[in-house]
Structures are given as structure tokens and as C-alpha cells.
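re the bet — no i am not wrong, look at it urself. input seq straight from the record:
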Amino acid sequence: MTLRPYIAAFFITSAIFLAAFGVSYLFNTKRLEELRTIEERLALDILSLETQFDLFEAVSCSQLKENNPITAELSELGAKLAFTEGELGADDPRVVQLKKTYTLLSIKDLILLRRVKERCGFGPMPILYFYSNKPNACTDCERQGYVLTRLAREIPEVRIYSFDYDLPLPALNTLEAIAEVEPPLPVVQHEGVTLRGFHNFEELLDAIPPLRALRDAKQETAASSSPAAASSSSESAAKGSPRE
């Protein structure tokens, strides 16, 4: 009995294994390089935002009204962080550190927003959202997140501040204590109104009247500027116009 078939099979299997290992190694190496690049960009974005916060403390109300890019940059930073968290996992030390920094920036933005509203009389409507990523700690957090995403999309005047309740960060712990936030989660809060547990879109509008007022005003504006409304207005004007 010859051993050649077995030897050939061994070498073929080894070659396939080594090839697969090599491809996997190259893929993982590339993935790690991409993640390092993302981390470096996040660090730069964070430094840039921190500098902007310092600058915006000294600008006038008119300048703030005309140009306030911090919100958009915070949203972009949050999206990058979410991607990194999805790639590395929520418990990865690098993700936790980036999340802490992002949370601090969000708290600073919230403080800045409140100061701007006090000093200038305008600004977005802040909604605080506290959630948990711990297994079985918040079964409705994902659903509530989708509702708040819809809320921010349909009412651009709203700014959602999302905070991981379990993040070990003293500043966040202080905010939670001031806001009197505690389980069960999720918790949605606005100006003294605290909602615990899941609330759908309409329930949020009912519980927070300024939200419904903003939504209704937006719908009225959209209705009045629609082609049908314009056509109806033109017809009414034509019917009521004087004839020679």
C-alpha cells in the first residue's frame, strides 16, 4: 500500500490551511490598520471639537445663530464611534475611552446649548436619553433609540443627547444624579419631564407638549407650502379678483 495519496492529501490540506490563514491574517491586519486610522481621526476630531467649545464661549449671539458646526460634527463623531464600537465591541478599552471622551463632549455641548438659550433666547430643544448596553438590562433601549432617531429626523429643532447609563465617568454620574435618572431604563427626559420605559412616537409628543407644538408647526408649514395649497390659494385669488 502506497503512502503517496495520503502524503499528497496532507500537503494539499496544509496548503489550503496556510492559504486560508494567510488571507485571514492579511484581512485582520488591514482591518486593524483601518481601525487605527479611525481612532486617529476620532482623536483629531475630539481635539478639534474641544477647541471649538472654547472658542464658542466667546462669540456673539448673531455669530452662533449663523454658524454653529459643533452639532453636525458631534453627530458625525457619534456615527464614527458607533462604527468603531461595532467593529471592536462595546467592552474594548479603546472604545470605552473614546466613548468617555465623546460623552464629555456631549455634556459640554448640552451646557453650551443651555447657556446660549439663556443668553441669546434661541437654540435646539434638548432631549436626554439614557440607555444601557448591558445584556438584559434594557430590552426596550434599541426600540426607543429608533423612535428617537425618527423624532430627530422629523423635527430638526430637536437635539438628542444619548448617554450610556453604565459608562464609568464621574461627569456622567453627576448628570445622572442631577437629572435623578435611575433604572428601569430607557429614560427620556426634557426640562423636568421624565419618561421611564418605552414610549412610541405619539406618546412622546403627548408627554412633552413642546415636541407636539414643533411637529404641528412643521406640518402646517409643509402643508401651506405644498403645490396643492398654492394651487388652491391661486384659485381663491382668481375667484375673488375684481372683473372689469
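see?? The mean pLDDT is 78. told u. also The chain is about 70% helix and 10% strand. so pay up
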